[in-house]
């Protein structure tokens, strides 16, 4: 009876160590991305900009508070009375207070641009779409018989 080995024992051990190393490396990379700083460039309505660095665990509320507490020189004219009215806009959408930077899957090592505006309340989700639907249900035509 023949006994066939796929690899000599030393190659099998090397293969197992290689798989272990790759697994360990992927886990380290996955964990380290949680701790990589997130670079934001915030733009005011006036066009003034300022760069900030945050943790992926920071929320929109955390960012607003940090910016308020560390209001940049040169932004004096835009100073607001409370961090609670500062809102972040990313890719055309307001970020709600509990959204973290990590949840946005921002590219690590790059600066991401967001707008910072003063606004008391956030618009209702789909409020613009609801108004459009309401407008389309109306009819302004006249039918003559």
List the keywords.
alpha+beta; Ubiquitin-like (UB roll); 3 helices; five-stranded mixed sheet; 32% helix; cell membrane
Topology:
Blueprint lengths: L8 H27 L2 E6 L5 E6 L5 H10 L16 E5 L2 E2 L16 E8 L8 H10 L9
Parallel strand pairs: 1-5
Antiparallel strand pairs: 1-2, 3-4, 3-5
Summarize this entry quickly:
It contains three helices and five strands, in the order H-E-E-H-E-E-E-H. It has 145 residues and is α+β, with helices and mostly antiparallel strands.
Structural overview:
With 145 residues, the protein is of the alpha+beta class. It has a domain of 87 residues: Phosphatidylinositol 3-kinase Catalytic Subunit, Chain A, domain 1 (Ubiquitin-like (UB roll)), CATH 3.10.20.90. The protein has three helices and five strands. A five-stranded mixed beta sheet has the order 2-1-5-3-4, with helices on one face.
Q: What's the oligomerization state?
A: single chain
In CATH terms, what is the fold-level topology of the domain at 36-122?
Ubiquitin-like (UB roll)
The total strand number stands at 5
Strand content: 15-25%
Q: For this structure, what is the CATH homologous superfamily of the domain at 36-122?
A: Phosphatidylinositol 3-kinase Catalytic Subunit, Chain A, domain 1
Return residue spans where pLDDT drops below 50 for at least 5 consecutive residues: none
Strand numbers in spatial order across the main sheet: 2-1-5-3-4
- Regarding CATH, which class of the domain at 36-122? Alpha Beta
Query: Measured on Cα atoms, how large is the radius of gyration?
Result: 26 Å
Mean pLDDT equals: 78
Structural class by secondary-structure content: alpha+beta
Which range best describes the helical content: under 10%, 10-25%, 25-40%, 40-55%, 55-70% or over 70%? 25-40%
Main beta sheet strand tally, sense and closure = 5 strands, mixed
